Amino acid sequence: MRQCVGSAAAHETFAAMTTYKLPESVLVVIHTPALDVLLLERVDFPGFWQSVTGSRATADEPLAATCAREVREETGLARPPADFDNWHYTNRYSIYPQWRHRYAPGVTHNVEHLFGLCVETRFAPQLAPREHRRWQWLNWRDAADMCFSWTNAQAIRLLAFRVARLGGGGAA
């Protein structure tokens, strides 16, 4: 019987690839045509409200596929990648110190891509209990004010601007 033996460095590299999050993510603003926005409260930081967010699973995962996966995981809503509106807007920000352990050593910044998902009506999401504890729908102004993340608040305000510029909630 042959035994496959690799170097310790190779094992560490593989472990790092399967352990650390990639510092590239999506933020998905789920909203209705009337600009009601879904927010989720984090389990690990009560009082921290946010839209759906998540990192790419692999470096080659299409961003819209990341959106579809994260929305399904965090809300139970299954939508195809084509339903997500890429706003072609990114933010680069410093990762909060309390979350840096999730990334490879030395990683301090994340690149976040903004997307929208317009749903016909409000729905009751099926939350991922390890990630979120409560949900609420708010008008876009109140939702922006409720977010702990400046990039999330900015994205929700951008939603209102996009709708005013492009017309109609579905075009956001």
Instruction: List unreliable stretches of 5+ residues.
Output: 1-16
CA radius of gyration is 18 Å
Strand order in the largest sheet: 4-1-6-5
Please identify which CATH superfamily we are dealing with: Nucleoside Triphosphate Pyrophosphohydrolase
Overall mean confidence score, pLDDT: 89
The fraction of residues assigned to DSSP E strands is 25-35%
* Number of strand elements: 7
Characterize this entry briefly.
Helices cover 28% and strands 28% of the residues. It is of the alpha+beta class and 172 residues long. It has a 4-stranded mixed sheet with strand order 4-1-6-5, with helices on both faces. A 3-stranded antiparallel sheet has the order 3-2-7.
Give an overview of the whole structure.
The chain is α+β, with helices and mostly antiparallel strands and 172 residues long. The chain has a single domain (19-171), classed as Nucleoside Triphosphate Pyrophosphohydrolase (Alpha-Beta Complex), CATH 3.90.79. Helix content is 28%, strand content 28%. It has four helices and seven strands, in the order αββββαβββαα. It has helices at residues 8-19, 63-75, 140-146, 150-166; strands at 24-31, 36-42, 49-50, 52-55, 85-94, 109-118, 132-139. Strands 4-1-6-5 form a four-stranded mixed beta sheet, sandwiched between helices. It has a three-stranded antiparallel beta sheet with strand order 3-2-7. Helix 3 (140-146) runs antiparallel to helix 4 (150-166). The radius of gyration is 18 Å and the shape is globular. The model is unreliable at 1-16 (pLDDT under 50).
